[in-house]
Every structure is written in structure tokens, then in C-alpha cells.
TrEMBL record:
GO terms for molecular function: 2 iron, 2 sulfur cluster binding; metal ion binding; oxidoreductase activity, acting on the aldehyde or oxo group of donors. Keywords: 2Fe-2S, Iron, Iron-sulfur, Metal-binding, Oxidoreductase. InterPro entries: 2Fe-2S-bd (IPR002888), 2Fe-2S-bd_dom_sf (IPR036884), 2Fe-2S_ferredoxin-like_sf (IPR036010), 2Fe-2S_ferredoxin-type (IPR001041), 2Fe2S_fd_BS (IPR006058), Aldehyde_Oxdr_Iron-Sulfur (IPR052914), Beta-grasp_dom_sf (IPR012675). This is Xanthine dehydrogenase YagT iron-sulfur-binding subunit. It comes from the Bacteria. Residues 9-85 form the 2Fe-2S ferredoxin-type domain. Signal peptide: none annotated. It comes from Rhodopseudomonas pentothenatexigens.
Length: 178
């Protein structure tokens, strides 16, 4: 009697609503899959060590740094990149707010900042605390300046657009809280 060595095909990763095959090489990072295989260049490779946040994407609605995550870990999951936040008709409200508040200079960190802020808003809605949080029991309260700065601290902007970034996030999610 021989063992059946049939291997089930790897599950796909749903990226921006499209099923994509899991790479055959288990060493491929999610970031490299996005940029090098799928040509989704919005997600940036900054430090490639998880310290800058330029590669932040959403996996099942939660923000992660894609450079530290292997693509195979996301089989059967849903990944949203900056390209997947908008439809062809209009920008995501946060993308529009970044434009209105001049939330970018060079723009390199912008995709990661926006994806991180979308994930941050979901965390606030779920009541996930931070070091600054006093009380998130009222989910209709807009996040404070300090709350946003704390929650976005994993996303670095080297050219100094932090004030515009914070203003864009605050205004976007203040309107959502009303």
C-alpha cells in the first residue's frame, strides 16, 4: 500500500478583489509579490525591515507591513493595497483629504500612510486601545491629534508632511464620526 502524495493546489490570495495564485517559492514576501509579480507599484519598499511603514497594506481589513510577511501566509485571505482603496469613479475619502491637506511632499510614504490610516480607523471602530486612549466606548468620537499621532507612529514621513497627514486623517474620520 502506498501513501497518496497528491497535493492540493494552493489557495489563492485575493488581492484588490482578484484571486491571485500563491507563489511557488515560499520565501517570497507579500511586498515582492505585489510589486514584482503583480506590478502593483503603489506599495513601496522602504527599509525592507518593517520599521518605516511604506509597505503597509490591509489584510482582511487589518494593517500589516508587507515586507515582513510571506505571501504564502495569506493564502485564502484578502489583501487590499492602495490601488484597491478606490474605484475607477472617485478617490477614497482619505486619498482626497491627503490632496486637500497637502499630506504629502515626495509622496513615497503616502500609500502606506493611507492604508495604515484606513486600518487605524477600523481599529478605533472596534475599540482597540492605544497608549493615548482614555475611553473608546463612544465609537462616534473623532480621534484626537495625539491619538492619531500615536496610532500612526509606525509610518514614517522623511520629508515632513506629518502635519498635513494628521489633518487629513483627523478631518476624514471626524466627518465619519458625525
Amino acid at each position: 500500500m502506498t501513501a497518496d502524495r497528491t497535493v492540493a493546489p494552493a489557495a489563492a490570495i485575493r488581492i484588490n478583489g482578484v484571486d491571485c495564485p500563491v507563489p511557488a517559492d515560499p520565501r517570497v514576501s507579500l511586498l515582492d509579490l505585489l510589486r514584482e509579480t503583480l506590478n502593483l507599484h503603489g506599495t513601496k519598499k522602504g527599509c525592507n525591515q518593517g520599521a518605516c511603514g511604506a509597505c503597509t497594506v490591509l489584510v482582511d481589513g487589518e494593517r500589516i507591513v508587507s515586507c515582513l510577511s510571506l505571501a504564502v501566509q495569506h493564502a485564502g485571505r484578502s489583501v487590499t493595497t492602495i490601488e484597491g482603496l478606490t474605484d475607477e469613479a472617485r478617490l477614497h475619502p482619505l486619498q482626497q483629504a491627503f490632496i486637500e491637506h497637502d499630506g504629502f511632499q515626495c509622496g513615497y510614504c503616502t500609500p502606506g500612510q493611507i492604508c495604515s490610516a484606513v486600518g487605524m480607523a477600523a481599529e478605533l471602530k472596534r475599540g482597540v486601545p492605544s497608549h493615548v486612549t482614555r475611553d473608546l466606548a463612544d465609537e462616534h468620537v473623532a480621534p484626537s491629534h495625539d491619538e492619531i499621532r500615536e496610532r500612526m507612529s509606525g509610518n514614517l514621513c522623511r520629508c515632513g508632511a506629518h502635519n498635513g497627514i494628521i489633518a487629513a486623517i483627523r478631518d476624514t474620520y471626524a466627518e465619519a464620526a458625525e
